[in-house]
Task: inverse folding
């Protein structure tokens, strides 16, 4: 290292645009312990999961990995599989049908949403937003909300429940959902085109006219900075800028592919291939954490009640209708294939986090990544014994590599209170919580 210290908010600048820097060793003097922040991510999959291939039969460290969980095998020591957790707020409680809307609405809030298809929606504040409101001032973005499937925000989407319930995970307040962004181009520009979208329309038009990368505009500043960094930080900066450019090229490729298929109603920048779309969004999350642009995020891999088809894995049927299989073995098999396909993308994300250096470890070491669904059995619409997995050790605070089985009807909101404690955000209650989830940090 050299003697030069950098501000944690330092950026590369040039011609009306700026690019955030990753966390470098030369920024260390700006930190207070712990040296690396703990991040929280919540990844949601819709329509339940075939629990035959998810829930381990054995508790403890020797749990078996079912067919859906197999892709996480290389990282099994980095995950906690949790069973027995319930969202009572997802149940009817006298309101009749609407389990899909309630599943998504209650997933991070622990609240039973008001049944309405009008403007008078009412839910609860979600755990991600509790965290964002407490720690979000430390980063450029208090939180990021991403998704892979667009959805309406108004109207009736599920048996008299507003589309706002089915299509959002994050709720800033009881009446204000935070819709996920599904277009990688818009996410990329938001993250890297300037602190306050300061890249002017003229600058962007000039860049696009000459097919220039955002990095071309900050090249001189980057070269100047390289001379002030030690060898470790130079390597980190090179790897980070390579990752940013790789994402930019993939966004551009997706835009070209979208332009070549005008019959498809696809926003510019959204890949036609689902796996590429999901992984591009996961890559954007990775560099956002690497640059400490945010510490809180949600990601809907598809909206609740999704009717997406997955022809790339041989499933031509719509997802949601398949889950109402009435124990038809062929339909159940196709649901299981979708469940595994979703989880394969998540496992790829976990590998990406594990391979991205962060301080004395990796990004995964300093994260808590929740993966799950607001339904267990999609055929019967059950909201108990939900499929839940947590990856990452929160800087060594979580005792991972285990399956922990909790008593029936344990509120899932108890997990969220425990997670908030681990990032230093103390909240007495969230949703229907009745305490903090035990056995996450010890046996």
Result:
């Amino acid at each position: 290292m050299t003697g030069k210290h950098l501000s944690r908010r330092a950026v590369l600048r040039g011609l009306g645009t700026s690019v955030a820097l990753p966390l470098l060793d030369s920024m260390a003097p700006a930190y207070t312990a712990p040296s690396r922040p703990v991040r929280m991510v919540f990844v949601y999959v819709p329509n339940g999961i075939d629990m035959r291939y998810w829930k381990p039969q054995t508790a403890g460290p020797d749990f078996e990995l079912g067919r859906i969980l197999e892709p996480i095998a290389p990282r099994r020591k980095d995950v906690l599989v949790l069973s027995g957790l319930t969202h009572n707020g997802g149940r009817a409680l006298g309101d009749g049908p609407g389990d899909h809307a309630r599943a998504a609405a209650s997933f991070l809030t622990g609240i039973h949403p008001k049944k309405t298809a009008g403007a008078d929606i009412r839910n609860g504040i979600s755990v991600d937003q509790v965290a964002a409101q407490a720690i979000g001032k430390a980063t450029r973005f208090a939180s990021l909300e991403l998704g892979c499937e667009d959805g309406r925000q108004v109207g009736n989407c599920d048996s008299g429940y507003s589309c706002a319930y089915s299509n959002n995970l994050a709720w800033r307040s009881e009446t204000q959902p935070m819709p996920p962004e599904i277009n990688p181009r818009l996410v990329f520009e938001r993250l890297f085109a300037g602190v306050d979208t300061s890249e002017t329309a003229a600058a962007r038009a000039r860049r696009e006219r000459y097919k220039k990368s955002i990095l071309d505009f900050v090249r001189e500043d980057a070269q100047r900075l390289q001379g002030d960094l030690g060898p470790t930080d130079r390597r980190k900066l090179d790897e980070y800028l390579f990752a940013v450019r790789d994402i930019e090229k993939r966004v551009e490729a997706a835009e070209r592919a979208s332009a070549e298929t005008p019959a498809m109603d696809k926003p510019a920048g959204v890949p036609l291939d689902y796996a590429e779309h999901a992984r591009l969004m996961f890559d954007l999350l990775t560099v956002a954490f690497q640059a400490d642009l945010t510490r809180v995020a949600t990601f809907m891999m598809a909206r609740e009640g999704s009717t997406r088809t997955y022809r790339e894995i041989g499933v031509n049927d719509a997802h949601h209708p398949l889950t109402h299989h009435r124990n038809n073995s062929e339909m159940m098999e196709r649901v299981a294939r979708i469940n595994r396909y979703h989880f394969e993308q998540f496992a790829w994300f976990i590998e990406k986090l594990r391979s991205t250096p962060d301080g004395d470890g990796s990004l995964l070491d300093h994260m808590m990544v929740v993966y799950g669904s607001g339904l267990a059995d999609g055929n019967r619409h059950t909201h108990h014994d939900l499929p839940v997995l947590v990856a990452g050790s929160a800087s060594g605070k979580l005792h991972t590599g285990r399956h922990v089985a909790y008593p029936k009807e344990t509120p899932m909101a108890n997990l969220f209170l425990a997670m908030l404690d681990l990032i230093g955000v103390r909240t007495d209650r969230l949703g229907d919580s009745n305490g903090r989830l035990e056995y996450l940090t010890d046996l």
Q: What stands out?
A: The mean pLDDT is 88. The domain at 36-182+276-422 is CATH 3.40.720 (Alkaline Phosphatase, subunit A). Residues 183 and 267 are 7 Å apart (CA to CA).
